[in-house]
Amino acid sequence: VKAIIEHEMKNGIPPNRIILGGFSQGGALSLYTALTCQHQLAGIVALSCWLPLHKAFPQAANNGVNKDIAILQCHGELDPMIPVRFGALTAEKLKSVVTPTKVQFKTFPGVMHSSCPQEMMAVKEFIEKLLPRI
């Protein structure tokens, strides 16, 4: 993922216009990669996931380069694969790694290990706010 970020930067995309995001393992990878990245990124979308190697943080965060990164974390309240409790624990851990007010944790009642239109609307609004048209 870091090589993809480098590739995009070489193609003229500034890192502060790059958002990493994913669902489940993809969300976990996005969180870990962004928080250990050497470039200041725009944000992270982390859906139905957890922070891998959470005990390594905040020390693993690369000199706080992304201390002010915006994070949208969403989780289904009925997720049997990754219980919402793990999402909540991740959100609390993230607040010790980045500026706490930059972490949004939204849960969705009745949603299992999947997404819903309301979650996708939250993602859309988050991206539009972070990356206004240029």
From TrEMBL:
PANTHER family: ACYL-PROTEIN THIOESTERASE 2 (PTHR10655:SF13), LYSOPHOSPHOLIPASE-RELATED (PTHR10655). Its EC number is 3.1.2.22. One of its GO terms (cellular component) is cytoplasm. InterPro entries: AB_hydrolase_fold, LYPA1-2/EST-like, PLipase/COase/thioEstase. Residues 1-130 form the Phospholipase/carboxylesterase/thioesterase domain. Pfam families: Abhydrolase_2. It is an enzyme of class 3 (hydrolase). Belongs to the AB hydrolase superfamily. AB hydrolase 2 family. Transmembrane segments: none annotated. One of its GO terms (molecular function) is palmitoyl-(protein) hydrolase activity. It comes from the Eukaryota. This is palmitoyl-protein hydrolase.
